[in-house]
Design a protein that fits this description.
With 256 residues, this protein is mainly alpha-helical. It contains 11 helices and no strands.
Amino acid sequence: MIKRSHWSIPYIIFMVVFVVLPLLLIVMYAFQDGNGHFTFANITRFFTDKDSLSTFALSLEIAIENTLICILLGYPAAWILSNKDYNRSAVTAVLFIMPMWINALMRTLATAELFNVLGITLGKGTLLFGMVYDYIPFMIYPIYNTLSRMDKSYAEAAEDLGATPWKVFWKITVPLSLPGVMSGVLMVFMPTVSTFAISEFLTNNKIKLFGTIIQENINSSMWNYGAALAFIMLLIIGISTLFMNNDEKAAEGGLI
């Protein structure tokens, strides 16, 4: 009989070929010049290139704004879905899931065409609308999962001790749901910084994000600098994930 562990071999091969190998190639190209010699010039170029730095700063600004909007809209939706007294939560959940059945690029193109039909000028506002539309499910479901698994006895104990519903929400529900919020922030913030298709179609390329300059360098056969930018983005994602995991452990440890 084949051992159960042998069934993991196809997945390991897939991970090596399509995940590990591409990441190694990015690192290799990031620290090479056009002649294949080792260099730090591609990394240092980013910190001296005003266009790249300004684009990165703008990407962070858009990502922060998009994340905040997703939290403001997604948290109430997640709270409603997790409320057992709300008998239409399944229907509401499907309404959030349905757009995800369509390819993200097609959704973006359809959104851009909708703005064109309505005569709305494409710019930062339309970009944020498209970002929220595409990424808000990634904020809702981590929060929803956390709220659904939350021990309701804490809220009940607070109510028995005389806490108002508003105080129970801020002192009990919100702190206990922070791990879900942090997961949602990570799932929304980092893709926003690195995306390029949404900003391209929803601003007519008027607003360039960090992912756009990576794409432009790759398309212009500037593989080494493009790989260096991608490597910097990977470092930011890794550091953000590390801090988020630490914050989640702290939130789970002693919030009450």
